[in-house]
Amino acid sequence: MSLSDAHYFEEMGVKKYEEIRPLLDSREKKDKLEGMKRLMAMISIGRDASVFFPDVVKQVISDSLEVKKLAYQFLTHYAESKSNEALLCINTFQKDLNDTNQLIRSSALRVLTSIRVPIIAQLQTMAVKQCVRDSSAYVRKAAAHAVAKVFALDPEQSEALEELVQVLLADNSTMVLGSAVAAYNEVCPDKWELIHPNYRKIVRLCADTDEWGQIMLLNMLTRYGRKFFTCPDRDTNKNPKEPKEGARKKKKNKAFYSDDDKSISSSSSSSEEEEEESDEEVELEADHATLLSSTVPLLRSRNAGVVVAVSTLFHYLAPRAQVVKGGKSLVRVLKNNRETQYLVLANISTLVQTRPDMFEGTAKEFFLRAHDCTCSALLKLEILSQLVNEANAQLIMREFNAYIKEASRDAVLIAATIQAIGRVAAWMPALTDSCVRGLMQLIQTSKRQDMVAESVVVVRALVQQAPEARVKIVRQLARLIDTIHAPDARASVVWMIGAYHHLVPKIAPDALRELAKTFKTEDAQVKLQVLNLATKLFLSEPATCEKLFRYVLDMGRYDMDFDIRDRARMMRAILVADHSPLLRDKAHALFLSSRQPPEFVAPSKGKGAFVLNTLSHVVSHQVSGYIEIDDFNDEVPDAEIREPLSSSDRSREASSRRSNQKDDKRSKKEVKDFYKNESSSDDDSDKSDRHDHASSDDASSSSSSSSSKAGSDSDSEASSSSSSAKKKQSKAATKKGCSKKRASDSDSDSDSDSDSNHSSSSSDTDDSISDSHKEEKKKAGGGLKKDLEEASKAKAAAKQPAAKDKTPKDKAKVGTTLAVQHDKPKSKDKSKGGGGSLIE
To answer: What is the pTM of this model?
Structure first.
């Protein structure tokens, strides 16, 4: 559809919707095309057009290419939900697989594999097998996409589909390669023997494939490299100070027009010093180095997905000195739409935890902007807190202060900024005091209780890191407790007073007295902390705080919150009543034990457990289809496994695979035949016992019939020479008519005599056979099989003397007799000898 068809995407009235079916039923191609365009516009704007499915099915046989293309797009969209209706035209889809137009062939395959009916899975596999070897790369790409569809429909077809994946991986077209790897990831993601012979080709053609294909290839190559290459930083991790064997130093980049001893420009000398610091390079395997060098140009891709995939590959496979190359490229693709920006930031937030040097000098790129969404802004704040160092500390802290003071900022962003300041204070001891002073000033001066609450929580965590050094902060917060109204903030202050009551012995009892007055109006979490404070003061100073302790217990005993009631009754049972003396002895260990200080970690630290550039990494939990990445192996196979296969090797593999399949089918058939024969053997034995008597009675008749067959065999031999004799007779008849009749009469007489002799001899042999057969049957006890074998032997013996007794002259006579009798009319009287059988 072109720009001139934009009016189709406007909301159409009811009348135009009603006109679609008549347009599709019209005989004019123009009307059919109009109806199909309206249907595609309905789908584009979100309207349900499935009611027109039967009408569109009829359009697949249209002669118009445009109508047929739109019909196939419609059928592909609704084939899964309308599978039964789509089955009606499956023969048309199969026919279109052989169409001359590659668009029709690929569209037919898409619709055929979109029908989600397991019964036709084998039919779909055959169609894919046909298209895998198509001459058009576009059709082969559609076949690669169809492989994953068939596998999702029927996983039992995996063996046949693996063969098709192998054929697709061997394709040299860059259009097909990315789709072939996608099919490989779906069908057999761990069968690396399919990748080995094609590895070098994939690496060489990676830069020439489309952007979607590049992402598929890079993800697969990342997993491949982790499994079949050694760790590039293995030696440096073991002994980072000693130079590695085989490591080479970079050559100094001398300044232009400079001498060996002295450099002209100061900039060049500084660059040389920087290079000397990182002057060691790791020697990698040839295939490993080729992979890294071939993917470096992709860092300049305009597609953010490709850049993230290359950065992920360098993170997992490249030496530490080369990983830095991906940092600036990731920062470059941040200037994109919101969705892409969030995904890139999610990967950067994980990379910066282990490789902060990748983003050195790029802190300004992560400053918040007015158009940033909240989720992206939170990730930026997390990244900024991890990029803080001595060089940019003042710049980043001023930026954080600006975010806090800006009144229009979202409360969530302000809280995240305060948490980021707390992480900076914990990770950089040089900035801790200045961060704490700024937070205390915010608590005292801010009018927003949400900011005060978050600041108090962060200050409490910082106080726990070194409580003796920050006693003044606890005292200041205790004095400010009347001005703090947020429940979280008040609960944190009360907890600090109770946890460090031995550091402020004069302030803690007075604070408990003031809190006891307002116990009834406090929030639930504040009441719990007041109970804890009273318990600790009672155990440390029972003489001065016992009355306050009992008063707080009585207030908590009748509170509306069941958690507070249970806590007050438990403390009374342990500390006041004499029901549990053992617990009372352990009361100090229960209520006055010290706790480990909290650890400041990045909010997205849990994402590091998942592979970068995956959906599981973004959502922080494993989803279906997630493939874990392996660790580097200490011992890897030799590089010879990546040698490409020759045509003879491929044909040998294909023939061996076919022979294995034939052997499997043959073995299955033999097993089935075995059980069939075993089940039918009992029935055959019963039938043979029943028919023993009948077969013994018919033995004599079978012997006589065999003798008659012998006679007919001799007649057939005689008839073979009749044609030659007939020619001679016809020539002689033109010269001597009367002698021909006499010769024929004499020949017929001699023939009848020989036939009568032959019939008498055959009857004598039949009688002898039957007598001998009966005697042998009586002696042997009546075995049917032996009788038949002996009868066949006797029949063969009867044939041989009859054939030997006939001389060539007799055979010629028989032939002339046949020729004469063929001209004469057939006689009605048939003798019992061999003459009747000859005439017939």
So the answer is: 0.69
